[in-house]
Amino acid sequence: MTPHVVEPDPQAGAAVKAADRAHVFHSWSAQGLIDPLAVAGAEGSYFWDYDGNRYLDFSSGLVYTNIGYQHPRVVAAIQEQAGKLVTFAPSFAVDVRSEAARLIAERTPGDLDKIFFTNGGAEAVENAVRMARLHTGRTKVLSAYRSYHGATNTAINLTGDPRRWPSDTASAGVVHFWAPFLYRSPFYATTEAEEGARALQHLEDTIAFEGPATIAAIILETVPGTAGIMTPPPGYLAGVREICDRYGIVFILDEVMAGFGRTGKWFAAEHFDVVPDLLTFAKGVNSGYVPLGGVAINAEIAATFDKRAYPGGLTYSGHPLACAAAVATLQVMEDEKVVEHAAHIGENVLGPGLRELAERHPSVGDVRGLGVFWALDLVKNRETREPLVPYNAAGEANAPMAAFAAAAKKNGLWPLVAMNRTHAVPPCNVSEAEAKEGLAALDAALSVADEHTA
Predict the structure, then answer these.
(1) Model-level pTM?
(2) Mind listing the pLDDT tens digit for each residue in 351-395?
């Protein structure tokens, strides 16, 4: 793809920002304290503003532009579908909807062959939990503290991070537990094997005290995303699968962020040889070009609703434009070997490059990830592992991370910053040269973070 020539137009940018500030209410923000960048365009792994600044996007939007911005085949597919059938109600059979479902089912693990379409990840989680509760006749759902599952009512209660707190009703039937994370182990483990075994025992104990017969589902992000990209230790997910089977609990894997090539596999579950009962997806299914998510459902749970109506639906479920984008995206990923490329970039460029940065920068406490799904855990002190900023820091307390992010942007890199971490999550088809460009910009920005170490 030919690099776009950025033509500055500050006056247009000022107009866009003025209209935004006058009328747009932004998510997760104190409205009077934000200053959104006015974006003029995007292409491939880059986007640019009206002042002529060009950024390498190491956030993939919100970890969803898995094939980059403006891929011509997907744009053309959306345009073609708009000319053919721009929308139609979800209760009808529509060719592009059927084809999208077929292509997704071909790639999901096991017998997850029925696809319920939603508009995004949070709705996928909402409906997966509803299916589990109706299938089992139970109400409780267990989820991990270090997690993010969405902002709708059930999904935000399932979420483990502080965004849950203002909306936590303490009555949504959710019980949180500790999933494994060796670097900051809640189990005083010293090895991956210890961490996995102790985390499974903790889960067993939680189930025992909550009452196995009251628990409908356990939901986990296969590889937690926003919470820190903590790859589970070998055997952990298989252990959760066995526990669910033993107690008749539905096992839900949330692959909204980790799915569709992000970890170097079509789905992260493939790394761990585990098949859930329900799998939620969104984001990378069509690179975020048109809102789309869904639930992949196994045969047993699907059969529950053969003669019993499923009490859920959405006006735009399986929207033709979104499904056309999904079909084209999956075809592009297959033809261009995007999943294999993501694995290569992780194994040969990002992984080694990030570990090399950690050797030289005292602010980097831990490096972890798969494919194009990586996190750097930034610390004040490597020995104590004290985070560079406190948990859920804001304002002056968050100044070191704000300085790091500003330095990255100054060097032409748009980072994804979450608490004391920066995530390296470029598009799955990022080139080797672009990945190395990002590593160089991170190198410079980490020097700023180093100034805040002890």
Answers:
(1) 0.96
(2) 999 999 999 999 999 999 999 999 999 999 999 999 999 999 999
Per-residue pLDDT at 1 exceeds 90:
no
pLDDT in tens, 151-204: 999 999 999 999 999 999 888 899 999 999 999 999 999 999 999 999 999 999
- Per-residue H/E/C for the chain: CCCCCCCCCHHHHHHHHHHHHHHCCCCCCCHHHCCCCCEEEEEECEEEECCCCEEEECCHHHHCCCCCECCHHHHHHHHHHHHHCCCCCCCCCCHHHHHHHHHHHHHCCCCCCEEEEECCHHHHHHHHHHHHHHHHCCCEEEEECCCCCCCCHHHHHHCCCHHHHHHCCCCCCEEEECCCCHHHCCCCCCCHHHHHHHHHHHHHHHHHHHCHHHEEEEEEECCCCCCCCCCCCCCHHHHHHHHHHHHCCEEEEECCCCCCCCCCCCCHHHHHCCCCCEEEECHHHCCCCCCCEEEEECHHHHHHCCCCCCCCCCCCCCCHHHHHHHHHHHHHHHHCCHHHHHHHHHHHHHHHHHHHHHHHCCCEEEEEEECCEEEEEEEEECCCCEECCCCCCCHHHHHHHHHHHHHHHHCCEECEEECCEEEECCCCCCCHHHHHHHHHHHHHHHHHHHCCCC
